[in-house]
Design a protein that fits this description.
Layout: H1 5-19, E1 24-25, H2 30-34, E2 37-40, E3 44-45, H3 61-76, E4 86-92, E5 96-100, H4 102-110, E6 115-120, H5 126-135, E7 140-145, H6 146-150, E8 151-152, H7 167-170, E9 174-175, H8 179-188, E10 192-196, H9 203-212, E11 219-221, H10 233-248, E12 251-255, E13 259-264, E14 270-274, H11 279-304
Helix pairs in contact: 3-4, 5-10, 8-11
Length: 310
């Protein structure tokens, strides 16, 4: 693939055109998701919704060149050229679609690599979200950012205990202290729990992870970075799905590390509260805000709407 800019752009355009209307996601098995393996580089397809493939946005040939230099240096010293695998999604009729690592993939082709390491994930698909909405139990929901709010580094001062062996070898993520109790609190008080992540986690992996922590999560949306470009077909479809989700709930509560916002989708009114505690106090303070300010408001609104027992 060493050649001019035009050659790479032409290659991307041809591959995307070839796969359009043909390539569809395929659910990978548990073992396929756990193991990192090497696959032929010609079985990996570019993602048409990634900025790398969008004319006028990407790719960055400077970044490709830097990765290519790293790969060639590793080859020279007989070292593994990839420290982290490419993140891919299994697709029909054959191969894998790139989710993260386009520049490294292009550099590997330029350097003449025949195989590259990949990690396969099952992303949240539109049908998954529609099923979540069908199964939703309440007309109110609470939303968290999985990466910024719920997960914590294992060395952080306030984290939940890791899972017992052997599950700790499979599920390495750690929860912020108090998250299971907080989720249970919201479920008990009539809220669906939705988690969003820009990262490429497998949907079934996250579902099992939270089951092991004895909590119910109603909605999980992964790889939300794919939604940024509304001009693509996938971007437009995902925007429609997002609207369906927001329309499903009359109240949405967004909770961050430092703030707490309640939005009424009917009146567009919102209230915002500050969460001042440390990670160790965070879940307790969120529950106190709910009990002091939000739940009484919901009960009052329920009485006005004629909802029994609200």
């Amino acid at each position: 693939m060493a050649g001019s800019v035009t050659q790479l752009e032409q290659f991307l355009a041809e591959r995307i055109k070839q796969n359009k209307g043909v390539m569809i996601p395929v659910k990978a098995g548990v073992l396929e998701q756990i193991l990192v393996r090497k696959v032929p580089i010609d079985r990996i397809h570019p993602n048409p919704d990634d900025e790398f493939c969008i004319k006028g946005v990407g790719p960055s040939y400077r970044i490709i060149g830097e990765y290519e230099e790293q790969i060639r240096r590793a080859q020279q010293y007989d070292e593994e050229p990839f420290k982290e695998p490419l993140i891919v999604e299994k697709v029909h009729p054959e191969g894998f679609m790139l989710l993260n690592g386009h520049h490294r993939w292009a550099a590997a082709m330029r350097a003449g690599l025949k195989k590259v390491p990949v990690k396969i994930v099952n992303l949240t698909q539109e049908t998954n979200i529609e099923k979540m909405l069908q199964d939703s139990r309440h007309d109110r929901r609470v939303v968290f950012d999985l990466d910024e709010v719920i997960f914590r580094d294992e060395n952080a001062p306030a984290v939940e205990r890791k899972l017992l062996f052997p599950y700790d070898r499979i599920f390495k993520e750690r929860l912020k202290l108090g998250v299971p109790g907080l989720f249970h609190f919201f479920t008990k008080n009539g809220y669906d729990i939705w988690l969003y992540s820009k990262n490429y986690y497998s949907l079934d992996y996250l579902q099992q992870f939270f089951r092991k922590h004895h909590v119910k999560v109603d909605g999980i949306v992964t790889g939300t970075v794919r939604n940024k470009n509304r001009d693509t077909e996938t971007g437009r479809r995902m925007a429609d799905i997002e609207k369906k989700v927001s329309d499903r709930y009359c109240v949405t509560i967004h909770i961050d590390n430092e703030y707490f916002m309640r939005i009424d989708s009917r009146t567009k009114a919102y209230e915002q509260y500050e969460v001042r505690g440390t990670d160790g106090d965070w879940s307790r303070e969120v529950m106190e805000i709910m009990e002091r300010s939000i739940l009484p408001l919901e009960q009052e609104n329920g009485k006005k709407d004629g909802v029994p027992g609200a």
